[in-house]
Amino acid sequence: MSIEVRIPTILRTYTAGEKAVEGSGATLAELIDDLESRHGGLRDRLVDDRGLRRFVNVYLNDEDVRFLGGLETPVTDGDHVTVLPAVAGGAGPSPHVG
């Protein structure tokens, strides 16, 4: 089984600079374990003891896996998984100087 996993720039140090890598598994958890076996350190950036890390978004075929079953979400051959770091913050309104 082959599932394409798109890797954000910030995590490409774990994939030798590759934008996308192939993996296999019946669930997202198994896929992440498979990726870890070939790209050591990646798993720790995606999950912790509670599940998917809070500031990591994972999409299966453009749907957020948090609404599909989290790590137990089934994956199949030909699926596309996208990993995106959550973006937060930003500048608030500028105070008037006067």
Question: What would you say this structure looks like, in words?
Answer:
By secondary structure, the chain is an alpha+beta fold. The chain has a single domain, classed as Roll (Ubiquitin-like (UB roll)). The protein is 16% helix and 26% strand. The chain contains two helices and seven strands; from the N terminus they run ββααβββββ. It has helices at residues 28-38, 42-46, and strands at 3-6, 20-23, 47-48, 51-52, 56-60, 63-64, 80-85. The strands form two sheets. A five-stranded mixed beta sheet has the order 2-1-7-5-6, covered by helices on one side. The longest helix has 11 residues, at 28-38. It starts with a strand and ends in a 13-residue tail after the last strand. 20% of the residues are buried.
How are the SSEs placed, and which strands pair?
Elements: E1 3-6, E2 20-23, H1 28-38, H2 42-46, E3 47-48, E4 51-52, E5 56-60, E6 63-64, E7 80-85
Parallel strand pairs: 1-7
Antiparallel strand pairs: 1-2, 3-4, 5-6, 5-7
The class by helix and strand makeup works out as: alpha+beta
What percentage of amino acids are in beta strands? 25-35%
Number of helices: 2
Q: What order do the SSEs take from the amino end to the carboxyl end, as H and E?
A: EEHHEEEEE
pLDDT averaged over residues: 88
Helix content: 10-25%
Per CATH, the superfamily is Beta-grasp domain
Would you state the CATH class?
Answer: Alpha Beta
Task: State the CATH architecture.
Answer: Roll
Rg calc:
16 Å
Q: For the terminal residues, how far apart are their CA atoms?
A: 64 Å
Looking at CATH, which topology would you report?
A: Ubiquitin-like (UB roll)
Main beta sheet strand tally, sense and closure: 5 strands, mixed
Q: How many domains comprise the coordinates?
A: 1
Overall shape: it is: globular
